[in-house]
Design brief:
This protein is 27% helix and 34% strand. The chain has a single domain, classed as 3-Layer(aba) Sandwich (Aminopeptidase), CATH 3.40.630. It is α+β, with helices and mostly antiparallel strands. The two termini are 23 Å apart. The radius of gyration is 15 Å and the shape is globular. It has a seven-stranded mixed beta sheet, with helices on both faces. It comes from Paenibacillus illinoisensis.
């Protein structure tokens, strides 16, 4: 389970943009979206913000050997309180079930210390199982889990 988590500089934007097509394809099982007239899914609307709001948005690329295998977009949200959140998390199917996703998530929690909220669509049961397992392991069961507005939300301290 050899992988590398790289904080993505602007040079990686195109790679994340390309991987985002596979992510949206996978995610289309849970949301209503179709490809546009050019055969591609609509571009992710907030991607550019990850290189503009550098204190609140953190893009990462995941590599194994010389292969790009996924990406993660982390946000720091400051409203009534400050917390980190996984905006998007993607590992290509070929590399799933090897422990890479779990290792990447735990590494991110260690890198971004503080309060976390991780959300999944209520219809995305596989993601709920993944995040509950990972967060339970990371926190040794010290987290809250609730459903609100069609989303399952886990909260914890890292």
């Amino acid at each position: 389970m050899n992988y590398e988590l790289i904080q993505a500089s602007k040079e990686y934007k195109g790679i994340i943009q390309n991987l985002m097509q596979f992510y949206i394809y996978d995610f289309s099982e849970f949301i209503d979206c179709d490809v546009e007239d050019d055969g591609l899914f609509r571009p992710y609307p907030y991607l550019e913000d990850y290189w503009v709001e550098v204190d609140h948005r953190f893009p990462y690329i995941i590599k194994q050997e010389d292969n790009y295998i996924g990406f993660v977009l982390v946000r720091c949200i400051e409203s009534e309180r400050k917390y980190f959140s996984i905006a998007e998390f993607f590992i290509m199917k070929k590399y799933r079930k090897e422990g890479i996703g779990t290792a990447v998530a735990k590494q991110l929690f260690d890198m971004h210390k503080g309060h976390w909220e991780v959300h999944q669509l209520e219809s995305n049961v596989p993601a709920q199982h993944f995040w509950n397992k990972v967060i339970h392991e990371f926190t040794q069961g010290n987290f809250s889990d609730r459903v609100h507005d069609g989303r399952r939300i886990q909260e914890f301290e890292a």
